[in-house]
Amino acid sequence: MDARLRERYSRQILFGxxxxxxxxxxxxxxxxxxxxxxxGSALASLLVRAGVGGLRIVDRDFVEASNLQRQTLFEEAxxxxxxxxxxxxxxxxxxxxxxxxxxxxxxDLTPANAQELLGDSAVLLDGTDNFETRxxxxxxxxxxSVPWIxxxxxxxxxxxxxxxxxxxxxxxxxxxDGDAAEDGSAPQRNEPTCDTVGVLxxxxxxxxxxxxxxxxxxxxxxxxxxxxxxMAFDVWTGRFQSLRVxxxxxCRACGQRRFSYLxxxxxxxxxxxxxxxxxxxxxxxHLNLAELGRNLAAAGSHVRQNDFLLxxxxxxxxxxxxxxxxAIIKGTRDASVARSIYARYIGA
Length: 348
Prior knowledge:
Blueprint: H1 3-8, H2 10-13, H3 19-27, E1 30-34, H4 38-50, E2 54-59, H5 76-80, H6 85-96, E3 101-106, H7 114-118, E4 123-126, H8 131-144, E5 148-154, E6 157-163, H9 171-175, H10 194-197, H11 201-219, E7 230-234, E8 239-243, E9 270-272, E10 277-280, H12 289-298, E11 303-305, E12 309-314, E13 317-322, E14 327-330, H13 335-345
Parallel strand pairs: 1-2, 1-4, 2-3, 4-5
Antiparallel strand pairs: 5-6, 6-7, 7-8, 9-10, 10-14, 11-12, 12-13, 13-14
């Protein structure tokens, strides 16, 4: 390690469990993070500052003003420009540490692209906001024996758990039960979300710190699967819990090795995306956003767009379209209304 890098990471090198050898190991490691919201942006910053050699960020969303309260990588200009989070995060992280190879990918993690996006990473990191994607990550990680770290934050509390496939409990052990459907999907629940009960930035910061520490330990080969625990923390009440989750012999994923999410059996083409929003997954459709924008503007529609997305006001709704055909219709929770708007302006 040259003198410049030794100086940059000097305080981390002084930490006994890491040292110069561990720092070198981090520099030659790569991870993939799925989701770059409140949790993901804090997590990405910690890992890039720690000197992890490569970070891939997969995120389908764009920066909005309501994100700025807690998503620490973004600023007002990102929201004004409607930048995708993956793009804004890559730009900011490269400025934080130019030695780290950061790659932002705008889009969804799907069964079709899971191998391409996750295949060369030593650790997979959860920055997502939904269980469908988490179960997909879990299926891939268990099938390929890749360690990953589950995490979630809402309101003032959050939780995280490192998962060592074949050695510790997986997410399906924790979150699925005997009520799972025949295709392996978990029963639908009315879970609180950031759009319904809010979220505190400090809660995301705490869970991101725990997740980043777990990732560093795995990358250094210092994570003991036998000590893997589900950790939960509430920053408002100060309550902390640490629980050992047992592996289940009847677990769909790590017990029976049925990977229904990875095989595409349970992936929806339409999902609720926060409060009063519906996301349509038309991934087979590739759009020319520039041409679409010109056509809509010529028809009298109010359009804003950049290289990554197009936003159209359809009062009382708002339609945001991505180049891969995905769209978010804001202002409704009615799937039929969302499909109708999509078909009207994008095509059936």
